[in-house]
Inverse folding.
């Protein structure tokens, strides 16, 4: 029996909440287990004055933590699933996906103004291409302002940066008991959430069989299968932070329904579709949905974004 575990995590308030939540769940299951939490600073935490799309792709908030896991400096890592690249480094994998929190985005606005009531020229803060592209498509008159920093910093910038509103993930606000700050939950038809949004990823070394068994007790099978469908969709499209891609899986009347979206950065083109089937086939459904979007023109968007990225790298 494992006697002690070291959890690796980022140092933000939300990341620490997530790591401590996992710690509390493990301590209830294994009362004699000693659990320590180690804070690891990632590239995404160090570079705060540059948009995420200029710094690099997915993995900005996980690579250093994964290196510590591979080097046996920590035993497990706790991440936000939406930060995870489509592929894991060799030797690492998902140990558990606990039950998901609300996956949607929310609006936090000055004076509690709803999204539909924001006037043209209103300043909306977000660092996400996915959010900004969908907002530009739904409400072309809005002015999108780049917004970086942890949750607390972004909430403060609502007033210090003279913004009318900001868009955030519901899960983070709910986990930190900041639900009262939410002006409204944004419907999927306006902003579809990021792949894995609202879910946690407990990452382990695939050769740690005892830890694999222990972490499995925290797994929520429905959430895991739903997220696997979203992630297979992302993987098939080769998505990263530089591409506005969104997906959300739901189970309705026993059927798994996966909705997915890809957009041009300026929001002028949004390609959206949904595929349904058995929850057990969620991974295949993700690939099927991606293939449908590619056939509908997603390949053109991806090629254009790749050309833009190459041009930017040359400058």
């Amino acid at each position: 029996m494992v006697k002690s575990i070291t959890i690796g995590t980022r140092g933000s308030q939300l990341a620490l909440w997530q790591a401590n939540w996992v710690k509390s769940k493990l301590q209830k299951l294994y009362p004699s287990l000693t659990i320590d939490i180690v804070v690891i600073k990632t590239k995404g935490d160090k570079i705060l004055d540059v948009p995420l799309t200029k710094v690099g792709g997915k993995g900005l908030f996980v690579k250093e933590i994964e290196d510590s896991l591979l080097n046996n400096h920590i035993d497990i890592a706790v991440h936000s699933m939406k930060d995870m690249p489509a592929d894991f480094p060799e030797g690492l994998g998902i140990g558990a996906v606990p039950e998901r929190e609300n996956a949607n985005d929310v609006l936090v606005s000055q004076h509690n103004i709803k999204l539909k009531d924001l006037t043209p020229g209103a300043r909306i803060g977000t660092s996400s291409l996915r959010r900004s592209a969908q907002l530009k498509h739904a409400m072309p008159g809005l002015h999108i302002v780049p917004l970086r920093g942890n949750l607390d910093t972004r909430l403060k910038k609502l007033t210090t940066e003279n913004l009318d509103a900001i868009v955030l993930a519901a899960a983070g606000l709910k986990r930190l008991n900041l639900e009262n700050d939410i002006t409204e939950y944004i419907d999927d038809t306006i902003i579809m959430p990021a792949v894995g949004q609202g879910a946690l990823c407990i990452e382990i070394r695939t050769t740690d069989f005892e830890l694999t068994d222990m972490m499995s007790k925290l797994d929520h099978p429905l959430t895991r299968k739903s997220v696997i469908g979203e992630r297979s969709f992302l993987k098939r499209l080769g998505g990263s932070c530089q591409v506005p891609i969104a997906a959300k899986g739901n189970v309705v009347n026993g059927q798994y329904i996966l909705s997915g979206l890809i957009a041009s950065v300026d929001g002028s083109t949004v390609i959206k579709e949904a595929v349904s089937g058995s929850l057990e086939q969620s991974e295949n459904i993700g690939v099927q949905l991606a293939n449908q979007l590619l056939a509908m023109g997603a390949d053109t968007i991806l090629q254009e974004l790749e050309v833009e990225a190459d041009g930017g790298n040359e400058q």
Notes: The radius of gyration is 19 Å. The first helix runs from residue 13 to 29. The chain has a mean pLDDT of 92. The chain has three domains: 1-99+199-219, 105-185, 221-310.
